[in-house]
Amino acid sequence: MPELPDVPEIEFRSDVTVELVKASARDEDVVFAARVSTKGEQSLSDVASEAERSAGLIRYLMRDRHGSPFEHNSLTFFVQAPIFVFREFQRHRIASYNEESGRYRQLRPVFYVPARERALQQIGKAGHYTFEPGTDEQHELVTSEMRRVYTEAYASYQRMLDAGVAREVARAVLPVATYSSMYVTLNARSLMNFLSLRTHRADAAFPSHPQREIEMCAEQMEAFWRPLMPLTAAAFDAAGRVAP
Fold first, then answer.
1. Which residues carry a binding-site annotation?
2. Could you give all domains of the chain from N- to C-terminal order, each with its CATH number?
3. Binding of FAD: at which residues (predicted)?
């Protein structure tokens, strides 16, 4: 086997990055949108003064699944995570995504390795299974094999780039555990739909069992959103975390 060429220092991560880039999202936006149905044109400033008295309206809208008033807002997140997490994100066709391109820039050697607390064993049949902690031996095997394969894959990628092969061709050897970055823009209704499916909560009316890595993203997104729309977030919880 030929010697591996010098490559940029490889980084192994077990976390994800989520940042709130910008947001126009308040409980008043929900009230404003809802009351135009019954009051016609109304100024947002008038509604803002009524917002604290409107928790009941928001709970009603959530409970009876009148969803469109929850769409008149916007949140944009910056996310860094493994590519396989982004593929799960993009199953949700209720957001706008812009991801960095391996065609136009050299991808960085940053790869995902599960933390020790990440469950490794799938117990049971498809659709009726649980994930259980792995043994020390399993964790050591996962860590060593992933690091070895990532290092070899990135060396192959670098050799092809050094030989003048186009980035869009050379990237084919890189694993889906390579970290990428993207912007995600969505409204509160879409976010609640995402959270209902990508967080595991015992108080949910329909408990979901997401892959842990995308749940890590969802938890951080929810943490940014809840202080912006506390009445809506509380109504979402009270409704069993079912999106309207």
1. 68, 88-93, 99-103, 171, 187-189, 193, 198
2. 11-238 (3.30.1360.170)
3. 68, 91-93, 99, 187-189, 193
